[in-house]
Structures are given as C-alpha cells and as structure tokens.
Amino acid sequence: MNVGIIAHNSKKTLIEDFCIAYKGILSRHELYATGTTGRRIEEVTSLKVHKFLPGSIGGDKQFTEMIERNALDLVIFFYNPNMINKGEPDMYTIVSACDRNNIPVATNIGTAEVMVLGLSRGDLDWRLGVKSSDIV
After folding, report:
1. What is the pLDDT of residues 87-99, one digit of tens each?
2. What are the catalytic residues?
C-alpha cells in the first residue's frame, strides 16, 4: 500500500514519534511525504521515504496530484488548526481530494493509529480493488 504522510511544521515532532512507534508496520509499505517531513522521518526511523518538494514550495501540490491520480491508499496529515498560514500545506485541499477519491485520511494521532493498525490487519485491502478498477 502507498501511505502519504504530511505534517505542518508544529507537528513534525509528533509525526516523527508516530513513525518511530509504528515503524514495523510502515516498513512494509511505500511511504510518500513532502520533502522536509520525509527527510525527518528517514532520519529518525531509517525508513525509505519517497520525497516530494517541501510543502511550502510545491510539495503539497505534488502530494495532492498523487491523491488525484488515486495513487495513495492512506493519508496521514497532522496539521495545526490553530496556526493555518499560507506557508503551510493546505489542509482543506488535501482532505477534500482524499474525500473525492475515497482515500482514508487521518488528521490526528487517534485516527492515524486506528488506520495504521487497520492497515496492518488488512482492513484497507479494499483499496487494491479501487486502484485496479481505475486502470480499466
């Protein structure tokens, strides 16, 4: 499965801790992230992460394009609802793209944990059928 990971600057440490905690599960999947988030995850976990540009210079758009192509199976986006600014990836754009493409999205630690544990159990295997039907 392809797992997209993105985090606002004030949530970078939280996403690092999350990835450390679930390294065993995440290591069995392809990880995609905006540049800074991906680099930080690689540094603390040694996981391989496919990195886009940093979110502030277009990585969030690359990330959204992958969602629009239905190429991600799960998105984890830790954002700070108290500090939304133009230099941060746009939460509304990313979440609404996930909704349009039926891609599960977690925006906080609680839903992220539930989804990653479900990923481990095979609860998201239905995404394989969605992607194969898009090819036809």
Report:
1. 666 788 999 999 9
2. 60
